[in-house]
Amino acid sequence: MTLTELFIVIIVVAFIAGIFQAISNSKKEKERGEILSKRASNIDGFVSSTTITGAKNRYQFLVDNENRKVCFIDECSKRIIPFEDIISVELVENGTTLSTKSTIRTVGGTLVGGALAGGAGAIVGGLSGNSKQVQKVSDVQIRMRIRDLENPVLVIKCFDAKTMTIEGKPIKTTSMDGNIYREGRQHAQRILDLVSVIIDDVDRNNVTATTESKSVSNISIADELTKLADLKEKGILSQDEFDQQKAKLLSSQVDVEPQKKVEENVVEIVEPTDDLSPELRQLIDEGKIIQAIKIYKDATGVSLNEAKDFIESHR
Fold this sequence. Notes:
12 strands; single chain; alpha+beta; 4-stranded antiparallel beta sheet; 8 helices; 19% strand
């Protein structure tokens, strides 16, 4: 057998092996999907209104608007979380937080939490290194902080180069496996948006409940004052007794000064910092806007319009 014939044989064998590997991967992916669907259908008291199935059927993220819960399912675990127990959500790429949203809480009617570094959708992580380095992606995660002492963090791996790519190492977004990264990035953004809306809804309900409670309290005090005045007019209460009871009612209406120390798991406000890398800042200062937009778009995976809006906002 000549070298040419040997080379051809090697190529054919490699091609056939690749086909069998692809078939095997496809079968495993289908099996994972069936497992996830079965586990999702067996959740008591959970009615899914939104379902996100991760790349390669690695997980499912479900939202139940009716019962106000979210659920995360993978091959090994299942976790159900009430809306009210969600503290914050982050989109993390290559270890850098790109977007984050946190809840607020009220103490005596005063807000004590807030949106971290600008709220949902805000870019809070800078681009580091040169453009060639940041185009390689190893992972994209969603991190949720939960009011749970035993399991306070839920990590959703929307893209993981080790388990989702052919070579199992960081990839360029333009490579053969770039479509898997883009799919995972879209899922991460969608989960971030959904959880951000949930956080806003919980905060809005808390503020409304606080306002309604104060309103009911005011009505109740007014009724009591009317009764006291009626007792005074009938001679049942003296002027001094009336004044004392009136003072007690009015003092109970005054809000107590918010505590300086709130519950430990309330998220503190973090002041935003400059979210541009030195490279992007230099390009913007030099007027090289198109180049800055391209680098930012390639590094983050956002749309062209989103990249343009972000760069324009820092001019």
